[in-house]
Amino acid sequence: MAQSQIPSIQWFPGHMAKTRRLMKDSLRLVDVVVELIDARIPRASRNPELHAIIGNKPHLVLLNKADSADERVTAEWCAYFKKKGIVAIPTDCRSGKGLSQFTGAVEETLRELTERRRKKGMQGSPIRMMIVGIPNVGKSSLINRLCGTRRAKVEDRPGVTRGKQWVSLQNGMELLDMPGVLWPKFEDQAVAEHLAFVGSIKDDVLDIELLAVRLLELLARDYPQQLCERYKLEPGSLEGADGYTLLEAVGRKRGMLMPGGVVNTERAAIMLLDEFRGGVMGKVSLERP
User: Fold this and answer.
1) 10 vs 187: CA distance, rounded Å
2) I need a surface site. Which of 29, 106, 127, 227 has the fewest CB within 10 A?
3) Other C-beta atoms within 10 Å of 286: how many?
4) What is the phi/psi pair of residue 51, to 5°?
């Protein structure tokens, strides 16, 4: 299958540089960093600078949107993180699935710190955590779920600058929400593509049709049955077809035709990406450990 190329993607607005500085400055205020990543693209949705920023600070990983990811692949990622000594939990923050394990995972990650505090007579101190993740990874949904029916409590605290919010949780923990942050440069354009597929880079800086073409090529390679079932394509039609041909076929099946029977590929591309991002295409993982 011929592979389409999309132009180099770079996306680093100034407010994201500010967020990186806020993150570094805020680490002293928290006990643990909770990293939220997209279960469909665990590698691309991890900030490669995060390890250097947080240093030895305890941290755990939530693989969000796991209901839209391939369960077998997600299990491989959980094993991958476990080998690195990091607790990783598959979650879906919209439905709350997997979050019942969250408090236990935080306590496990902070076992040594809790024991040190106990010996010093400080066991009543609340656990404070920082939530970090790229844009559109589901941080707001996570925070709303963790708060439950109790209204999120936002307060000013010494050392906390504008742009950060403290939220009190039902379990007595306190959470520091940070704005979503990407990184300065995408060295690997596959990473940029994957971020664009899930909507973490604004569509208005992208060629939406070429993006849909690349996604179709990946789906035809790794999830051909799901692609054919969703858009009623013949399996044989995938063989040797490039992404643009597939986009036209999808648009034609959905009746997205203009005068003269020409397929409206822009409309088809928008629909395809919306459906992929909404998880209606089935369980798809674009990256393996």
Assistant:
1) 9
2) 29
3) 24
4) -60, -45
- Its sign, for the CA torsion 153, 155, 158, 161, is positive
0.85 surpassed by pTM: no
The whole-number pLDDT of residue 144 equals 83
Neighbours of 54 (CB within 10 A): 19
Per-residue pLDDT at 149 exceeds 90: no
- Mean per-residue pLDDT over the chain, rounded: 84
Angle at 191 between CA 276 and CA 39, to 5 degrees: 50
- pLDDT at position 160 is 35
Q: What is the DSSP string of the chain?
A: -------------HHHHHHHHHHHHHGGG-SEEEEEEETTSTTTTS-TTHHHHHTT--EEEEEESGGGS-HHHHHHHHHHHHHTT--EEE-BTTTTBTGGGHHHHHHHHTHHHHHHHHHTT-TTSPPEEEEEE-TTSSHHHHHHHHHTTSPPP----TTPPTT-EEEE-TTS-EEEE------S--SSHHHHHHHHHTTSS-GGGS-HHHHHHHHHHHHHHH-HHHHHHHHT--GGGGTT--HHHHHHHHHHHTT-B-GGG-B-HHHHHHHHHHHHHTTTT-S------
pLDDT of residue 161: 36
Split at pLDDT 50, 70, 90, the class of 155 is very low
Please report how many Cα atoms fall inside a 13 Å half-sphere around the Cα of residue 221, on the Cβ side. 14
Cα radius of gyration (the chain): 21
pLDDT at residue 237 in the model: 92
Summarize the confidence of residues 150-159 as an average pLDDT: 40
pLDDT score at 145? 86
**Distance between CA atoms of residues 81 and 88, nearest Å:** 6
Which amino acid would we find at residue 8?
A: S
pLDDT digits (tens, 9 = 90+) for 104-118: 999 889 888 888 888
